[in-house]
Amino acid sequence: MPDQDEPVWVDTTVNGVRHEEVVDARTTLADFLRGRLRLTGTHVGCEHGVCGACTVIVDGAAVRSCLMLAVQADGAVVETVEGLTDDPGDLTPLQDAFSRHHAVQCGFCTSGFLMSTTAALREGPVTDEAQARDVLSGNICRCTGYTGMVAALLEVGGTRDDH
Amino acid sequence: MTTTEPRTQKMIGASVLRREDRRLLTGAATYLDDLELPGCYEAAFVRSPHAAARIVSIDTSAAAAMPGVLGVWTGADLPEIAKGIPPKVVHPQLRDVPRVPLPADFVKFVGEPVAVVVATSRYVAEDALDLVEVEYDVLPAVSSTGAALAASAPLVHEGAENNIAIHVVQTAGDPAAAMDAAPHRLRERFTVARGGGHSMETRGVAARFDPTTEQLVVWDTTQSPHYVRNTLAYLYDMPEDGIRVVAPPDVGGGFGPKAQFYGEEAVIPWVARLLRNPVKWVEDRRENFVATMMERTQVHDVEIGFDDDGHILAIRNVFEHDQGAYCAGLQVPMITLSTLPGQYRIPNIHTELIACYTNMVPTSSVRGAGRPQAVVAMERMVDRAAEHLGMDPVEFRRRNLVQADEFPYRVGLTFRDGSPLTYDSGNFPLLLEKTLSAFRYEEQRSLQAAARAEGRLVGIGIAAYVEGCGLGPYEGSRYRLLNDGTVLVTLAAAPQGQGYETVYAQIAADALGMDMDLIRVTTGDTSRIPFGQGTFASRNTATAGPATLQAGQEMRGKLLQVAEAMLKTSAASLTIRGNRVEVTDDPTRSVSLRDIAGAANVGKHGITLAPGILPGLETTVYFAPERAAYASGTHAVAVEIDPETGAIDVLRYVIGHDCGNVMNPMLVDGQVLGGFAHGVGNAMYEEPFYDETGQPQSTSYLDYSLPSSMEVPPVELVHIHTPSPLNPLGAKGAGEGGTIPVPAAIANAVEDALRPFGARITSLPITPPKIVDALSTDDLDGTGPWHG
């Protein structure tokens, strides 16, 4: 599989930090972020693009980092869960609402929900339950039953657009 | 002995926000695949593509020669660990068949591992998998209980007469005579599919052997670190202290399958030891679909006998349980056996299990663990009986519930530990009425009547259950005063999202009479506490909880005793305020917890302890419950069916729940709501299909539907609290109740919606095609195959 093993340059900005790295062409973006950059907050749940645990924001769009190659992020701006707050001591209003509404149990899916929800909120407010459920429906959570997430999203979704 | 008033602000019962959340929300958590293990090799497994085959040969030479591959091992290469993994729960009549970590001769299910490749990366390891040449002699397979039990069925395991693993009958009263004499008898056959656990984090194991200390450190996503350690010690013939099993601080969901032991867990540490290098294996989702245990289908043939007044006289249930290729444990079918009668007073019971081997991945507990199936059998027949009598199904239930003054209630059956099956406490009538009140039952019936008048298919379903939880044998809690004056509480059990670091700190805070911020909880490391069982069967609040309470009270006594000596007081009362112990009547006289640690734990080398100072402030308590506590619940649901598409719209859902005293209401609600979502999947979406050759057909989330936020409807919770008398916290379990009755409740509601057509629902999950089939069958007069 020499073509897959072929080293390629990736020049990408992740959470505001520019990285120039050589990777195997077949390396997924998820594995690049986790293994090379050690940003392990992005989780891999299904590796076939359904569960959404690996969701990151690439050039403003929420994407499944398990379905994307690292080399496809060349020249792109990538945001991961680690980049949501500048100061590790702070939580964004959305993160804080997730905690207060008990929208987190095992936490494995949480990063993906935060990233896809963050991207959605940048596009516009979320003001009713049907809309909240629609926003959340691209990711799977096995622990919470989504109740807390719906409440958290409704709490912050109508009032802010700078998530 | 000094005494003091407990701290006035009680933490037990408060909805304290979770300490775990911050790291989970900021991407700072540490799951197994996040561990820093520099130079760690990665493994991948060659798995059988056949459900039944003889292994003719395995050629690993090309794979082993691949650059980046460190080694390839087959079962034949690892005779040292070719031992049967003992089933978790056994029975004297079980015909056990050894389940070895890597079989050398035969494969019995698709996905069974036959070789392991270790390489510099998972990418390389998976490349090498393709180069391992395995020649199989494919054999006939069985992929359902019906096929397994058929005359002349292929044998899953050679040398047996049939595929039966165990056949158990339990009775109470005289069920045969009572059934014969019953004025009314109804019988039905239900098939109940139970899907998998589907934790969002799959299984994983990493291991590192230190040749200097000869200690093997194993990180494992397990729910039961001590069980893994004990099993490894047995398989490796090593002393248990030579193996340290650690469940990482963050484990991404469990739900039962991670409480079992798998061959991969034996292989990875072993090859790490052989290679003298860390090795990691993280299951991918495709492996998870074929190789992680699931619960799968039971088939229930159930008959109910009752009188004109709606009193249940007898119940008879014979069910087939799919054990899979091996028996990993009998817990699931044994639980089904004893869960059948539920909340009802039934004088005559016949409950019969036929568990059989099949050529599919072994089955084991998945959230609910055998109870949802039993509840389907019972609650569906309760509805049928009410229908037969023209009685409101709620009224029928009222007439049969065990009453609040009948506890402890002896069911007449035997629990799986051999003791008489006894419900410790509960209030089923109150639970029913509170649930109906919140559901607005009468109003819902009016709405249903109005809808029917418009030709709409609206139905109402009720289902009640009991859940044996808080099981033994024991669970432990260890306290230590650290040198900085804080208290470390160590639990053997490992969490997978339940919030142990928070809720056990709450219990400890009340037990110690100390502020929670001086208490830290650590979990899941066999080197920190020698004995433990694990997180399963909704057991820890009722086992580790009381252990934490009692050990904390003992620790408080020690702290005060040392403080008393250090303060040279005979004062009747001391108070812990912040990080100091002070004389209640004279707060100017006090000693800090750090000073207590200095005096009692650190000491001075060679200097005799002062009088009254206790050496080494630690306490450990293992709490062993007398028997299981029984939680209970009642669910009520209204649905509307679209007759064209077969879609089910949940109009209203109310959960009535009684798990005894609650430690943290927010966390309990979270457990119930999450369990409910799992039940919704079981009721309407999740089904692991296998074809007749034993090939799994649903091996991705495109084929196997997990409920998303669109599928899980809003739900209203109602709690009552009947404390358990079996532990000092009065706690019961809350982990599975949300799941257990959902399939039965929704099936009852769907059948109620279809009642104008007399259509029958006998198979779960209830998918749209089944509803369309039920509506389009020409057998709508109540005599044909739908009636078993």
> Pairing-aware structural class of the strands and helices of chain B?
alpha+beta
Using the coordinates shown, work out and report the CATH topology of the largest domain in chain B.
Aldehyde Oxidoreductase, domain 4
Order of helices and strands of chain A: HEEHEEEHHHH
Biggest protein-protein contact in the assembly: A-B, 59 and 57 residues
Strand content of chain A: 15-25%
What CATH first level of the largest domain in chain A would be assigned? Alpha Beta
Mean pLDDT of chain A: 93
Please bin the fraction of helical residues of chain A.
25-40%
| 3D shape of chain A | elongated
Strand order of the largest sheet of chain A: 2-1-5-3-4
The oligomeric state of the chains shown is heterodimer
User: For the terminal residues of chain B, how far apart are their CA atoms?
Assistant: 70 Å
- Report the principal-axis shape of chain B: globular
Query: Please, what is the CATH homologous superfamily of the largest domain in chain A?
Result: Beta-grasp domain
Number of domain units of chain A:
2
Low-pLDDT residue intervals, each spanning 5 or more residues of chain B: 1-6, 778-788
Describe this protein's structure:
- Chain A: Its EC number is 1.2.99.2.
- Chain A: Pathway: Alkaloid degradation; nicotine degradation.
- The complex is a heterodimer of chains A (163) and B (788).
- Chain A folds into two domains: 2-81, Roll (Ubiquitin-like (UB roll)); 93-157, Orthogonal Bundle (DNA polymerase, domain 1).
- Chain A contains six helices and five strands.
- Chain A has helices at 2-5, 29-36, 93-100, 110-123, 129-136, 147-157, and strands spanning 7-14, 17-24, 55-58, 61-64, 77-79.
- The model of chain B is unreliable at 1-6 and 778-788 (pLDDT under 50).
- Chain B contains 19 helices and 29 strands.
- In chain B, the strands form seven sheets. Chain B has a seven-stranded mixed β-sheet with strand order 3-5-1-12-9-10-11, sandwiched between helices. In chain B, strands 7-15-14-13-8-29 form a six-stranded mixed β-sheet, sandwiched between helices. Chain B has a four-stranded mixed β-sheet with strand order 18-26-27-28, sandwiched between helices.
- Chain B has 788 residues and is α+β, with helices and mostly antiparallel strands.
- Chain B has three domains: 21-28 and 472-623, Aldehyde oxidase/xanthine dehydrogenase, molybdopterin binding domain (Aldehyde Oxidoreductase, domain 4, 2-Layer Sandwich); 32-139 and 198-291, Aldehyde oxidase/xanthine dehydrogenase, a/b hammerhead (Aldehyde Oxidoreductase, domain 3), CATH 3.90.1170.50; 369-467 and 628-787, Aldehyde oxidase/xanthine dehydrogenase, molybdopterin binding domain (Aldehyde Oxidoreductase, domain 4, 2-Layer Sandwich).
- Chain B is globular.
- Classes of the chains: A alpha+beta (163), B alpha+beta (788).
- The interface between A and B is large, with 59 and 57 residues.
